[in-house]
Amino acid sequence: MEKGYCGAECGNCGFRGKGECAGCRASGGCPFGKYCYLASTVKPGGEAALEAYKKELIGEINALGIPGLPEITELIPLNGFFVNLAYELPGGKSVKFLDDGEIYLGTQVPCEFNDGSVSRYFGVVAGPGFLLVGEYGADGTDPELILYRKR
Fold first, then answer.
1. How far apart are CA 37 and CA 4, in angstroms?
2. Cα separations (Å) of 8 from 44, 54, 76, 89, 91?
3. How far apart are alpha carbons 88 and 10 in whole angstroms?
4. What is the 3-class SS of the chain, one letter each residue?
5. What separation in angstroms does the CA of 28 have from each of 39, 62, 140?
6. Residues 84, 81: Cα–Cα separation, whole Å
7. How far apart are CA 76 and CA 89, in angstroms?
8. If both were cysteines, with which of 71, 72, 75, 119 could 105 make a disulfide (CB 3.0 to 4.6 Å apart)?
9. What CA–CA distance (Å, rounded) separates 3 from 12?
10. What are phi and psi of 105, to 5 degrees?
């Protein structure tokens, strides 16, 4: 299976088989018709540059001190389509902060406060210039925006 510059398995996202994506390497780092910021990190500096970037992001995330968020140890490439949840704002309007056609680094971890009767998860997403942390139920239900911050 083809891997993108960032190590993502291109066939796993579903867009490749539908012809909606040429693949990262085949498109020169533009899998969805625009330049991927992860490819721009890896191409000039190699995989070592990506690992250094991920380590920096993990340090920033762990330093946030969000209650219930366990220590993050790994970030993986994720298609925006899978992580772009609509968060309800105080006025009642729902807003998506991400781009479905972008590749982000992120992870999902269980909330440390789960008691067995309710399971909540944290979704952590990093993109070019921002960090986003959301909390939600199974399958992304009832999402709550915990943090969106420029970096």
1. 12
2. 18, 14, 8, 32, 37
3. 31
4. CCECCCCCEHHHHCCCCCCCCCCCCCCCCCCCCCCCHHHHHHHHHHHHHHHHHHHHHHHHHHCCCCCCCCCCCCCEEEEHHHHCCEEECCCCCEEECCCCCCEEEEEEEECCCCCCCCCCEEEEEEECCEEEEEEECHHHCCCEEEEEEEC
5. 8, 33, 32
6. 6
7. 28
8. 75
9. 10
10. -105, 135
Digit-coded pLDDT (tens) for 41-53? 887 888 898 999 9
Closest CA to 140 of 65, 99, 81: 81
The predicted-structure confidence for 91-106, as pLDDT tens digits, reads as follows 999 999 999 888 899 9
- Amino acid occupying residue 75: L
| CA–CA gap between residue 143 and residue 137 (Å, rounded) | 7
Lookup result for tokens 């920033």: 60
For the question of whether the overall pTM of this predicted structure is more than 0.85, the answer is: yes
